[in-house]
Amino acid sequence: MTDATPLKVGVVGLGYAGTTHAESYLGIPGVEVVALAGKEADRLAELGRTLDVPVLLDDWQDLVALDELDIVSVATPNALHGPISIAALEAGKHVFCEKPLAIHAEEARRMGEVARANNRVLEVAFNHRRRADVQYLKSYLADPGIGEIYHVRATWKRRAGIPGLTSWFTNKSLAGGGALIDLGPHVLDIVLFLLGEPRVTTASAAAHGALGRAGYGAMNLSAQFDGGHAAFEVDDLVSALLRTDAGTSIQYEISWAGHTADDEDISIELLGVDGGARLLVKRYATDGTLTIYRDINGAHVDITPQIHVVDKGHPMVIREFIDVVRSGDWAGHHGDDAVHRTEILDACYESARTNREVTL
Ligand SMILES: NC(=O)c1ccc[n+]([C@@H]2O[C@H](COP(=O)([O-])OP(=O)(O)OC[C@H]3O[C@@H](n4cnc5c(N)ncnc54)[C@H](O)[C@@H]3O)[C@@H](O)[C@H]2O)c1
Description:
Structural class: alpha/beta
Shape: globular
Radius of gyration: 20 Å
Bound molecules: nicotinamide-adenine-dinucleotide
């Protein structure tokens, strides 16, 4: 393969994620989206027309069976990530999968094994890590750094952000969980990326779903598919204490809903011996999101780097995925980091269910 190898992509899912995937591929020279699959016939026809995609299918199995595809992009309800990715990898396709990699770690590990056995790339959409403020903080931590980071506070909180009280998002078998499995992977990914990929060794968590069950907290989304699952079966708030093998503790809280002032706020605070840093992204803000705290000659000094975040990162992560596919060097791109993130989510759910700390 070369930098310009033509690649043919099929995208499964027509919602926000699937549409974003398709549009991101179309921005890359030599990459063609030749097939789309999804259940909403009108949306399928509309996307096919506007994005000029020739093959339009109702079900993912027909898409994965297309010989001409080099890549399958998975943007469906969480429970389908595993089956679609495994079938595509076994058919020799590279896979770009939405987060969470799978609804539990056992399936995620199997996905990684199948990618490795077939020597194909398995990449996961950790798009928020590509934010310019996160990337800047990563480079700041490398040099000059903030000393040993001993504690992290990492949260994503919404006031009313349950994505559809009657959609697949709140159905346990289709989503695997609620707020934690939905927003939690992004927050974990940013933290573990910034910390240099330590392994999480223990999790002690509590999970709640009281607001969702009481009918509070729905996000007003115009496009939600797979409706008809009326019961709220998942968590709307999970709070956890994680420990890593590097000795860092991580206070981790994810919520879809709460009677509180915090509304669509992502906050990641790193406490180091020589300095601190806080990324505070309120409502997907693009400027003024990062502050670095130092103590210089006995005075507190706050540094606010002027960084503008251009987008939420899907085009960048998909561009990098295509670069890896074209490089032909696929070892080390079998989803290992994403597997560990699903193990941590599993440990949080297990801890909440059993009222005890879980060792990974
Ligand atoms: N990375 C991010 O920032 C981000 C943002 C939003 C959603 N997501 C993830 O993307 C995934 C999809 O989320 P969404 O909000 O787009 O959901 P959605 O409900 O809007 O869309 C899901 C799509 O899957 C399709 N689908 C369901 N069953 C299918 C089948 N058997 N064959 C073919 N297609 C099928 C539906 O028809 C629908 O088009 C989820 O895993 C979610 O966690 C990630």
